[in-house]
Write a sequence for this structure.
């Protein structure tokens, strides 16, 4: 880098003043980090000049900037400037339902930007932060899936280097830090850098002025011709359809250099690429538009892979050491070894290399962080990603079936040190990928047949139907681009417009359904809080709601109304707050203190009433918490205004039904690990890990990671462990504890990806929390349930009374769900199981000595089986056992009786068949012989009697099954085959049945069977005689 350009000067030292600036920030970082920072300062900074870049690209030798060094340099630079290194969040945003995946570094900080962060959370204390965040953009607003493979810079999984300011520094320091990081710490040539800023946009960002401040700041570092304005499409950043947003400034890098590349900025030129985006978060977008946030924040993101390509002297992200090991693994996995990756565009083999390598990264990180391919939401996106990778690999690289999971070890070896969760979950990732790929390979042929059938039906020049392409994507798992590939191979094009129309129609239906659900909940008023609402309360000096009383039962503590919320967009200021709510209004009340538990952690909110003079004036139907403010949602019975003094009256009877379900959810979690993992703490964080829960007054639901259904013995053991802990009358302690002390407890279980406050509430069953904290690695704690939880619980397990595990089922690949009940519902389920066993015993002893008795028992068994499947609520293990015992009765008692009855019928009918054969000789025999509807018995008697005694004769036999049903059999001998068709004969006889009768059946020219139903009227002897006459008359030999 040339002297005076902001990079290294001739004596290879840091620019004047920079070291002092960094040293001045050391008081903001931890003591044990200062040595690393000073070592970084003492080292001579590296530079990437045009010559160095060209040399590195030509030599192909080891890079001076391996991926690990790039991450470390970035983080150390910002730590030196007073930033806290905050680890990457999971790519699965468990706590943010608005996102399919973490698609930017700022996602995990969204609550800070919105002002809804839990005040006690460790994150709430952050002022400056930095990290390398795992991101996936393969669904939702930010979706790069369809572009991956077609160029050399799009990815579905990528790392985003980022630094953040939360109400601390803003534009001036953000731009300075970005400039110094790039030109000093990484030594990029300033002559190749271009900056963009928001130039205004009255369509997409109406009312937001051009960001002239940012332009003037950039002119300190760059000439005016390299500081460029763009509209909101490029320089106004939004995370999604709602949420924090603001103008941004991007830094672009020209890979070529030595030219004016201003015209190529934001022109999709692969050699002039955006590497860093600094977003100045000033606004929040909601349904009513843009609103100014209470404080200004900075959110930056730099593409790690793009930076690596520049520092390693490569012209493509895919040519770096980030992807090279994966390409080698892909090639090694193929039996017919494809050519090495060469980086060509519009080349099927190289495109497939890029697709497979990118997609296995996305899948592996998503699975490691708790997602699973399935048919809904993010699971559906992952399934699309996997199937796209499989298709490209098998179709263009000729990879063998089942190849994808074999690439995981190479990924783990390359990225496991930076992201240890990959190592911990390696076995799970491979198992999920192997199973999913196996399933897709079963459907590939089905999809190909569907495509071929539709394609072959097309006329000349006719496009492949968009709705058919949508069916392939939505039902058979073929993404649109795979369908387009198949179409191109046949010289066809896909009607993408019709596909998009079908997709839009499907989205519209889903959105309408969601809107209907939201409207039904709150009468069309949006009663959720965002940054605007929490900021308004804070600005008005409204204190956060005191909630300690939620853990005190059977009280009516006083509270004061501090805010009345009518819904977003309402009120004088449009923020939703009003002075008072009229009678019968559905609204939200914020109180200064409450005993109501607000919904969180899988537990539903308390309900009840707010009292004035001991009379209910507000029916509380729900309670939600936002940044420490608890909003009580419900209907006002009288006018309620800010300042009103009320009393909280929780429905403690309802809570008393919730608490045992919540406490037993903890014990169930413990029991599952005891049974499935034998209590091991070393089985990996993904095995048997909690994937979700829901607790309400009726039941508890618990989702966990496991690959197979639980066996009956496992179900029985899990249930018995929970029941044993109830019988042991164990004390339940919930104690507020410093987060670090809680996390040190070796046996602690907590929800992956969830943010916990500090201090946090530790809930322990049977072990004093003080003892746990004092000896966190004590082996005996392995026999107790210990979790972080802010819910309402029992004080003793005995208060749960009883427990019954009702359902165990799969809800996604690798995820199981159990549903259970406690107290009276559990006792009732056990009573049903007892009654079912008594019923079963009666069926086992039932009389089957006569055909009538056997028929009656079969009807009773059918009724009982239907009740088992649809009505009887009992423990899952008992239901499995009862069902198995019932099948044993059917397979032994019933089948043995059926054989006896069949033998009796055969004996009774044998003489009639013998007489019929003798009467027919070589002609035609028609007779009524009642032996039921047993086709096998007829075949046996026909062979042993009719064919043996009268081989040249043909026969029609009618058997009365019941009053309204006849079985009709016809058999045509060889001599008569040319003149008589057995099916036509049977149909003719059936047609002679009385008006209103129906018939169905079929057969072959030589034998047929029909069933004739009379409808409401029974078949009398005269009707049957008429059918026999019709049978005799049909055959004229």
């Amino acid at each position: 880098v040339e002297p005076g350009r902001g990079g290294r000067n001739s004596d290879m030292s840091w620019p004047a003043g920079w070291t002092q600036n960094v040293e001045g920030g050391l008081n903001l970082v931890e003591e044990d980090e200062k040595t690393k920072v000073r070592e970084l300062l003492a080292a001579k900074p590296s530079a990437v000049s045009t010559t160095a870049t060209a040399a590195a690209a030509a030599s192909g030798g080891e890079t001076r900037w391996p991926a690990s060094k790039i991450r470390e340099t970035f983080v150390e630079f910002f730590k030196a400037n007073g930033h806290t290194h905050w680890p990457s969040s999971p790519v699965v945003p468990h706590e943010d339902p608005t996102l399919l995946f973490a698609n930017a570094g700022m996602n995990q900080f969204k609550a800070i930007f919105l002002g809804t962060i839990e005040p006690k959370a460790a994150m709430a204390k952050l002022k400056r932060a930095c990290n390398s965040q795992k991101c996936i953009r393969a669904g939702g607003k930010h979706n790069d899936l369809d572009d991956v493979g077609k160029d050399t810079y799009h990815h579905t999984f990528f790392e985003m280097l980022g630094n953040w300011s939360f109400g601390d520094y803003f534009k001036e320091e953000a731009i300075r830090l970005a400039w110094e990081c790039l030109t000093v710490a990484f030594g990029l040539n300033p002559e190749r850098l271009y900056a963009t800023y928001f130039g205004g946009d009255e369509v997409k960002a109406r009312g937001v002025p051009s960001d002239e401040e940012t332009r003037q700041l950039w002119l300190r570092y760059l000439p005016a011709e390299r500081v460029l304005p763009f509209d909101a499409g490029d320089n106004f950043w939004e995370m999604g359809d709602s949420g924090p947003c603001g103008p941004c400034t991007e830094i672009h890098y020209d890979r070529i250099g030595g030219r004016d590349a201003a015209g190529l900025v934001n022109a999709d030129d692969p050699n002039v690429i955006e590497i860093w985006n600094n977003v100045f978060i000033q606004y929040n977008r909601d349904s009513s538009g843009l609103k100014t946030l209470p404080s200004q924040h900075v959110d930056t993101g730099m593409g790690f892979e793009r930076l690596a390509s520049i520092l390693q002297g490569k012209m493509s992200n895919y040519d770096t050491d980030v992807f090279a090991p994966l390409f080698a693994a892909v090639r090694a996995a193929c039996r017919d070894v494809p050519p090495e990756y060469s980086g060509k565009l519009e080349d099927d083999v190289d495109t497939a290399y890029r697709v497979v390598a990118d997609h296995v990264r996305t899948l592996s990180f998503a699975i490691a962080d708790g997602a699973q391919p399935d048919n809904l939401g993010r699971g559906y996106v992952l399934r699309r990603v996997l199937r796209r990778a499989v298709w490209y690999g098998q179709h263009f690289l000729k990879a063998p079936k089942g190849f994808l999971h074999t690439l995981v070890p190479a990924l783990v070896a390359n990225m496991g040190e930076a992201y240890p969760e990959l190592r911990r979950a390696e076995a799970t990732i491979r198992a999920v990928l192997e199973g999913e790929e196996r399933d897709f390979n079963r459907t590939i042929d089905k999809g190909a047949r569907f495509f071929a059938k539709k394609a072959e039906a097309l006329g000349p020049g006719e496009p492949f139907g968009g709705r058919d392409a949508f069916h392939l994507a939505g039902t058979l798992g073929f993404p649109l681009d795979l369908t387009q590939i198949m179409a191109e191979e046949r010289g066809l094009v896909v009607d993408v417009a019709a596909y998009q129309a079908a997709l839009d129609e499907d989205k519209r239906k889903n959105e309408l359904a969601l809107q209907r659900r939201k409207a039904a909940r709150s009468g069309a008023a949006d009663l959720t809080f965002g940054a605007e609402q929490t900021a308004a309360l804070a600005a008005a000096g409204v204190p956060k709601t005191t909630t300690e009383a939620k853990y005190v039962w059977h009280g009516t503590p006083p509270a004061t109304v501090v805010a009345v919320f009518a819904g977003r967009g309402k009120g004088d200021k449009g923020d939703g707050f009003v002075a008072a709510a009229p009678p019968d209004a559905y609204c939200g009340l914020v109180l200064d203190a409450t005993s109501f538990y607000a919904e969180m952690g899988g537990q539903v909110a308390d309900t009840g009433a707010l009292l004035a003079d001991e009379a209910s004036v507000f029916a509380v139907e729900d309670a939600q918490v936002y940044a420490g403010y608890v909003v009580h949602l419900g209907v006002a019975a009288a006018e309620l205004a800010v300042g009103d003094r009320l009393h909280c009256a929780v429905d403690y009877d309802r809570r008393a039904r919730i608490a045992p379900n919540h406490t037993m959810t903890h014990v169930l979690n413990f029991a599952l690990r005891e049974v499935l993992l034998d209590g091991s703490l070393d089985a990996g964080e993904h095995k048997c890990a909690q994937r979700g829960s829901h607790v309400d007054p009726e039941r508890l639901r618990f989702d966990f990671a496991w690959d197979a259904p639980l066996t009956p013995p496992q179900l029985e053991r899990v249930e018995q462990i929970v029941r044993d802990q109830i019988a042991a009358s164990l004390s339940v302690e919930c104690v507020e504890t410093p987060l670090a002390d809680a996390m040190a407890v070796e046996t602690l279980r907590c929800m992956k990806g969830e943010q916990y406050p500090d201090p946090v509430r530790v809930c322990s069953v049977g072990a004093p929390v003080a003892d746990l904290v004092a000896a966190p690695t004590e082996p005996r704690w392995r026999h107790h349930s210990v979790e972080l939880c802010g819910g309402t619980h029992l004080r003793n397990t005995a208060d749960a009374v009883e427990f019954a595990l009702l359902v165990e089922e799969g809800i996604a690949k690798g995820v199981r769900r159990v549903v259970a009940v406690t107290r009276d519902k559990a006792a009732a389920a056990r009573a049903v199981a007892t009654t079912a066993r008594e019923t079963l015993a009666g069926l086992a002893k039932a009389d089957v000595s006569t055909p009538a008795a056997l028929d009656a028992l079969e009807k009773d068994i059918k009724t009982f089986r239907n009740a088992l499947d649809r009505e009887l609520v009992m423990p899952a293990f008992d239901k499995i056992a009862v069902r198995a015992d019932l099948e044993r009765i059917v397979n032994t008692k019933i089948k043995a009786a059926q054989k006896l009855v069949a033998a009796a019928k055969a004996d009774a009918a044998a003489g009639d068949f013998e007489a019929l054969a003798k009467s027919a000789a070589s002609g035609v025999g028609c007779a009524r012989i009642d032996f039921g509807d047993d086709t096998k018995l007829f075949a046996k008697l026909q062979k042993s009697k009719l064919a043996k005694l009268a081989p040249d004769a043909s026969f029609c036999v009618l058997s009365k099954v019941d009053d309204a049903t006849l079985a009709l059999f016809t058999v045509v001998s060889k001599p008569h085959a040319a003149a008589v068709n057995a099916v036509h004969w049977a149909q003719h006889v059936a047609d002679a049945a009385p008006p209103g009768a129906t018939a169905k059946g079929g057969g072959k020219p030589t034998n047929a069977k029909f069933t004739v139903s009379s409808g409401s009227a029974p078949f009398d002897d005269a009707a049957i005689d008429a059918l026999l006459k019709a049978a005799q008359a049909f055959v004229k030999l």
In short: The radius of gyration is 37 Å. Residues 1-34, 40-61 have pLDDT under 50 and may be disordered. The CA atoms of residues 194 and 222 lie 8 Å apart.
